[in-house]
From TrEMBL:
InterPro entries hit by this protein: Acyl_CoA_acyltransferase, GNAT_dom, N-acetyltransferase
Domain N-acetyltransferase: 3-164
Record field: transmembrane: none
Listed name of the protein: N-acetyltransferase
């Protein structure tokens, strides 16, 4: 599959929030319990200002099939070389190598702005993401036990890191 990477702008608000809402309602990949309104998209734009943020478009169908971004790990200047990564791909498109392509893109774009370390915050119930990150050079660097509860089910937050 060939992908087109477009800057994440208001033009893609509905598609991005629809994909994110799927994961909110059907998984532990997103830390919200109920669907978000389209206005939440503005929060994505706010937290990604100055960082790479893209929508993923299938070149053939021209359909938005995901989104990805880096954001500041912390607003403090001493952490300016560290970013947190986020990506969500339409469920029907997972397992096709898209995540690897997106990770490579964000690593490359992150290096251009001085990022040297990438962190991922992952629910302990999200085995697909934990395995993906492990298989792509991330290692577990911390675990917060039972700090989250979604749909009455407790989970750990697993922090993974990678130097780029």
């Amino acid at each position: 599959m060939n992908l087109i990477y477009e800057s994440m702008t208001e033009k893609y608000c509905n598609e991005v929030i629809d994909i994110f809402n799927y994961y909110i309602e059907n998984s532990f990949a997103a830390y919200f319990e109920s669907k978000l309104p389209y206005q939440f998209f503005n929060k994505f734009l706010e937290i990604t200002k100055g960082y790479p943020a893209y929508v993923l478009i299938d070149d053939k169908s021209k359909k938005v099939i995901g989104f990805c971004f880096l954001k500041a790990y912390s607003p403090l200047p001493v952490f300016k070389e560290t970013a947190e990564i986020t990506y969500f791909i339409e469920k029907s498109e997972t397992g096709k190598g898209i995540g690897k392509k997106v990770l490579n893109l964000l690593q490359s774009e992150g290096k251009k702005i001085g990022i040297q370390h990438i962190l991922a915050s992952i629910s302990s119930h999200n085995n697909q993401s934990l395995n993906f990150h492990k298989n792509n050079g991330f290692s577990e660097c911390g675990r917060l036990h039972n700090v989250g509860k979604k749909n009455k089910k407790s989970f750990d937050v697993v922090w993974m890191e990678k130097s780029i």
